[in-house]
Amino acid sequence: MTLNPHIKLFLDIIPIGVFFIGYKFFGIFTATAAMLALTLLTLSIIYVYERKIAIGPLITAALVTVFGGLTLWLHDETFIKIKVTLVNLLFAAVLLGGCLKKKGLLQHILGPAFRLTPHGWYLLSLRWGCFFLCMAVLNEFVWRNFPTDIWVNFKVFGLFGTTILFALLQTRLIQKHTQTGE
Questions:
Q1: How far apart are CA 115 and CA 164, in angstroms?
Q2: Quick one: which of 36, 45, 52, 141 is 20 to 30 A from 117 by CA?
Q3: What is the DSSP string of 72-114?
Q4: Are residues 97 and 163 in the same domain?
């Protein structure tokens, strides 16, 4: 059984929404605990319905568990802040590493959604790898130079909005490199 894509999207973004609300009303540690719990709950729901979990959300959940757990255990918000950097660096390393070997690794994740030429997959992977690298650097800059209030807003709205915008900007590349015919 597969989840409705709208429900799946909701399950993917609800932990960050709860993190934001939790932070605004209760602070960073409660927000981190809520995000950690909801990340694991939503992953469990997806697994129950689909009997599989995509690698991206699984890696993110593992890092949320480790760095969210360290944040709570050591009572140090630095760990939840660097989690964002590490997730982005990991995705960048995988995608750019694939590009060094002339492989468009996004095909393994987005293959069912798009039928691109090998060069199209390579370019899309390269662009996303560079994007994730930039987001890692930007996160480091923000959390190290601004108060936690600004970092939380950046994490919830800045990173999400930038990611949506970047994805939309890839439409032309996808159209140009879509394979036609059978």
A1: 21
A2: 52
A3: HHHT-THHHHHHHHHHHHHHHHHHHHHHHTT--TTHHHHTTT-
A4: yes
